[in-house]
Amino acid sequence: MTQPRRMGVEGSLMRGRFIDAAEALLRDEGLLGLTARQVASRAGLKTQLLYYYYRTMDDLILALVRRVNERRVARFHEIMASPNPLRGLWALNSDPSGAVMSSELSSMASHREAIRTEIVRFAQQFRAMQIEAVTRLLAERQGFEGSGFEKSGAGIVMIAVALARAIVTESALGLTEGHSEALAIVEAMLDRLGETVPAPSESDARVLSEPG
Amino acid sequence: MTQPRRMGVEGSLMRGRFIDAAEALLRDEGLLGLTARQVASRAGLKTQLLYYYYRTMDDLILALVRRVNERRVARFHEIMASPNPLRGLWALNSDPSGAVMSSELSSMASHREAIRTEIVRFAQQFRAMQIEAVTRLLAERQGFEGSGFEKSGAGIVMIAVALARAIVTESALGLTEGHSEALAIVEAMLDRLGETVPAPSESDARVLSEPG
DNA sequence: GTCTATACTTCGATAGAC
DNA sequence: GTCTATCGAAGTATAGAC
Question: Can you tell me which residue has its alpha carbon closest to the C1' of nucleotide C4?
Fold first, then answer.
């Protein structure tokens, strides 16, 4: 008596198409664009069909959240196995589409009770993973002696995550005051850790002023 | 022919009541709560009356943005005239209601063309003010020699603003991983600048671990 | 599995009486 | 200056035919 409506099976192809559309919408239009009508329209499907595969919009969003999070964890593990994990983590957090997604999701978490738990639980767990990794990597390397940061893996991760997200979201608005200078500080720190500089990506200014 | 509707005068008392309600709603419910009906309801007034005083919702939001920004500038100048401007600036950026407001406003800027310009223009200008002030204050004080940050007022401000906002918005969701450690780094830096510690405010853990 | 049709709510906004 | 009444669009969601 609690499931009066027919629902599509778990492994359907259509489910993926709706999630794809939802993800694209969230990236391009933000949380306000994530409506049943717009998701269906973007997927080229009928709005009512969405409700055959997902009981509510919250269900669809929850599925999207899980997919985004799984991909993020997968990228994290790839980075940990790569030659320059610290730079890789910085790149992961600075990745525009990922950062926009994280930002919109945590914005949604404030408004939608149903998905807050999932988003917060993952964010907490993923933050802990990054802290554990960075703390270990810092302990293995030299370059931070005397800077007061030796024991501060958790603080460094927190600051880096906050900075990366702010730079991405502000850049999207055309606000760039202080970005290049903050990036220069990050680059200087990564340099001190003795890692090589990867090929710079498309957007965002890189002003590598000589570190003091 | 472009103003077919009657409008209330500029200095009306009712205008302020609507703005008050809008501000409270934006703080408590976020951008999704900022609708004509909810603003009017919160103000204890009729929805249609709102449209007598404001031509569109964008007009009302714009008025709110201007008021919030003016208050922020006023607080900035008070802080500059206070004994501990660096700590004062950190407190300003860490202030929960102010940070939530800034965060919701920049979130709105992504979606509403009409107010983006106003929000971005102010954010850019306010960032520049903070950078100018911090750069000057750092030059006047000792404590950063050898840390590589001497010339990086702009970078420091960017990082501090990003961190403060992240801590506030994450705390509101119950996400606190890495907060106390990041705050310890900030405290250590402020300590190095030789300023005294103000009385700690209500929320947020302060783990003042001994600076390295 | 997909369609048409539709219910109900809330949104921004307007017209015109008082 | 404030009220009642209302519009059209868009929101989530459901029922039932095909």
Answer: A48
